[in-house]
Every structure is written in structure tokens, then in C-alpha cells.
Amino acid sequence: MAKNQKLTPFKLSCIVLLALMLLVFVGQFSAAQAQLDQDNDGIPDAKETELALMYLPYLQFKSGERFFPVVISYHLNNSILKLRSGETVTPVDMSPTISAIASRGEGYFLANKLGNLTEIAADYEQKRASIGYTVYCRVTKESTSIVVQYWFFYAYNDAPLNVHEGDWEMIQILLDSSENPVSAVYSQHLRGQRAAWGDVEKLETTHPRVYVARGSHANYFRPYQGKLGLEGDEVGADGFVLNPSDLQIVLLGELGSGGHGPSQDWLEFGGRWGNWEKLADAAAGFAGPYGPGQGDNYERWSNSISWGQSVSVVDGTWFTLSWFASNFLLFFVCVTVLLCLWKVWRIVKLKKTGGLKLPSLLGSRASAGIALGIIAMALTVGGMLLPWYTVRANVQTSLISTQGEADLLVLDGQRGVLVNLLVGGNGLSPIFSLQIPLGILLLAGIVLGLLDIVGAKTAKGLGNKYLMGGITFLVVFVLLIVFIIQLAFMIQSLANAMGMSLPSEASEMAKTVAQQPLQGTQTRTIGDFGFVNLSWGLGLGAYMFLASAIMKLVGGIILRTTKSLQPEKSPLPPPPPLT
Prior knowledge:
Elements: H1 9-34, H2 45-54, E1 58-61, H3 72-77, E2 79-85, E3 88-93, H4 98-102, E4 108-112, H5 117-131, E5 133-142, E6 145-158, E7 163-175, E8 181-188, E9 191-196, E10 202-203, E11 207-212, E12 219-220, E13 241-242, E14 247-251, H6 281-284, H7 298-302, H8 304-310, E15 312-313, H9 316-326, H10 328-353, H11 358-362, H12 366-384, E16 387-397, E17 406-412, E18 416-420, E19 428-431, H13 438-454, H14 459-489, H15 491-497, H16 504-515, E20 519-526, E21 530-538, H17 540-560
Parallel strand pairs: 1-11, 5-14, 9-15
Antiparallel strand pairs: 1-13, 2-3, 2-4, 5-6, 6-7, 7-8, 8-9, 10-11, 11-12, 16-17, 16-21, 17-18, 18-19, 20-21
């Protein structure tokens, strides 16, 4: 049996020395890891990971959403790389890879080979559970501030106004030099909104709540937003939820050589992440989008802070307006019902006391005024069902052509403002998402007007109400003309907001409409592409609306000039004789 070896002072010193050397090595290694900055942006990778996880968003989707943030390889594996030159499209790579698309630029696009929206949605739903939900995060430094960006890729954009394969959206949080959050910017199509950090709804104090619009995937700060805007976004808190823990995060590097690893070379792809069926689709927002840092996403990536400062600011006042706009129709219906109940109660009360004068009025000159008012109501009902304003065009150009005349813009009492972008095959689509069915407002006025007739106490009182109604209708008619004029003058700004580019000839045609809003026609050559024949004017519904206003005014005048039907007072009895 071996004897126990004693631990000599020399051996103990060697062990202690080796332990100290190991500790120094581990410390240096940890320090090196803590300072590792693979994307060379001045922020250690460990700090980027920490911030990326700290502000990872909470995503609330609207009921009916079919697509959620997905890893880009899902789309890439389902795509064919194509090249567009004018109207000529050439397949380039039937099975593109990240390295294959990295060197491709403008004109290239990734067309999904699965088919149309229905087929893509079915494939995504089948694979959704296995591929999970991916968010791409970029943490970078600008001056003394830090910007934390989250980029979301969706396989399809099926918005109310436009549709296209692929969709890139993002949000960013701005941190000051002390790494305190200052503000957040949420992208919405080509623009966005900015809110102070204190106005951002949060989960566990740091994770911003993002309300994602159905189909378009625009990002909002509140579930009742989307009603005050151009696109008509549907936003709500009644759909699928992705908590921060549900998201797979990919930390992005920077653009350029040495800014990222080979697995992120797709950042250099300068083409479109979706099909580009017709050349004109790009101008109208129906082609696939550009990726992070490319095309119209360049400013968001390269000048993040200045881009964030350029978007509109929203605060408590704006949120209140948005909430009111979202619930306006409900408020209007409730107020109308209460007014109707109040008027019915007054009618019942007057009937009990013999105060209803309608039978007497119908037997007098006032009956003509009442009849005109009823005819005015019938005209209003007809006007609700017909267009108020229409712009039609016969377009024969090499980019876009129509089969004869097609509606470009229709304003009516049922659907609000509808536009036809003439691409994508969508036909007329609603814009200005407040989209109050104006016909409901008119219908409420008709119901209240009928109750006023039934409950009339005097011809003069009913006449005053007719006059007020007629004047209101005339004001609305004038506002309609003013709206058309302003819309025509703003056509270029509206096009820019929707990602469209209009030729100068189109802007000139819009100015002509603004100068002659009631009616007109013009034919104009669009460069070397062809010609456009445009016609515009008030629709039959607007003329019926105007006739209704005039009849109400005439009826009101007749009623006001009708002599009072109050019973004559009995003569006072003679005074008693003096005694």
C-alpha cells in the first residue's frame, strides 16, 4: 500500500500560481468577449444583445390576420430570382441562396413560386408552427444616442388598398447617452408615427406594445388607431398575440464589408422581396418591397434618428381624437336613438294634451310646405344610393391601359371615397379610413325630420327646422366641392404618401380638375407613353342632394309664412257696472 504523499510548500505554491494564471486568463477572455464588436458599430455585441432583449416588442394582431413575422429563409426558399428590364422579365435563378442574391441590385426581385395569395397563405399556415416567429434586431449608435430597431418580414401584404408579396415593417426605440429610452417610432407603410416613451404602452416597463394592422402590418401605438389616415388600416386588440418570449431574435450587423457575417449577406440585396408583375406596379405600391437599408428603407437604416424626427408626432390629444374617430359611428347612433326617443316622448305627451297640430296643418296652406319637405326626404334617400362625384378616365399608355372608360375616383353616401389605382386588379378601394357611411348620417336626419313633422306644434316652428335642414344640406354640398378641389390640389402629396410616383402631366390634369370642379373633360398626352382622356363631375346623387336642399328651403319659407292656426281668443267679458 502506497504511502500518503505530503503537500509540500513548493507544490502548494505551484497550485496557487496555476489557479491565479487561470483566473487571469478567464478574466481576460471574459473582458475580450464583453468588448467584442463584430459589426464594428462601436457597441459591443454583448450590449447589443442585452438591449435587443430588453426592448423586444409585444405584438398584438387584428382578428383575421393570416401572416406573422417570419424568417427570411422561408420566403427565399419559395422564390425564383428574376430580373426586370422594362416590361421584359427574365428568370435568373430558380433556387436562389443568400450568397446568390447578395450581389443583385435594382431590377431584381424574388417572385414567390407557390402561386397566389390563397396558396401562399395555405403553405404558410401549414408550416407556421414549425418555423416560429422571427424578429430581426439592429442596435446601432448615432452621435451620442443608441437606436434599437426591430425589423419584421411578412410573407404577404394583403391590405385593403394594395396587395403584394413580401412585406417589411419596423419599429425603433431611441436611447439617450445614458441608455434611457426617449421615444419610439412605428413604421406605417412609407411613413410612420413617433411618440414619447411615456406615451408608449408597455409590457413589464420596457417591452413596447405594438398594434399591427391587418394585412398591411403597419404598426400603431393604440388598438383604436388607423381610422385617421389614408390607407384605411384595420387595427384592434382582438387577434393573435406574440409575447416577447414567443419571438426568435436575430441580431443584425451593419451594411457593407465587415459589417456582418456571410449568413446576413442578404442585407446587401438591392432588389425587391416579392413579385413585380407589371412595370407600373412599382409606382403604385403593388410590387414587392425593398429590404432593410435598401430603396425606400435607406433613410430608416442610414439616418435613423433624422428619419424618426421626420414622421408625425402623436400624443395624448391625437390618441383621444383617434379613439373618438374609431367610435364616432357608435356615438352618432346612440345620440340619434336618444333624440328619437325624446321626440317620440314629446309626441305622446302632446297627443294626450291635444297639442299635435299636424291634422290642422295638413288642412291649410302649410300642407304644400310639408309636402315639399317629404319630397326632399325622398330625394335624399335616392341621393344616398347614387354617386355624388365621379372621375373617369380612358387610359391608353404603354404602362397602364383600360378597356374604355374606368372609374378612377367615386364619392358616394354608402362607401365614402373610393379610388382605383388601375394596377393589381383591385378595382375601387376605400381611402381615408374614417370612412363614415355618409348615407347613415342623412338617414338619421330623415328619421328625425319625419318625427318633427308628426310632432309639429306650429307651422313657423316646423318651417324653421326645414330652413335649418336646407341650409345644412347646402353647406354640406359646398364642402363636397371644396373637398374635391383640395383633393385635386393634394393629389401629388397623396400619391407620395401611398408610394406612388405621378408624371407631371397627371399633376397638371389634377390642377385642371381643381379649377373646374363641377364638370369637365380633357385629353392629355403622357410623354411618349400614350394618352389619357379624363372626365369628371358631380354625380346624380349630388344633384338630388342639392334639389333636396332647395325644396327644404322653399318648404320652410311656405311654412313660416303660413298664418298661425291657434284658435282665436274669446273676447273679454265687459266689466261689471259701477255701483
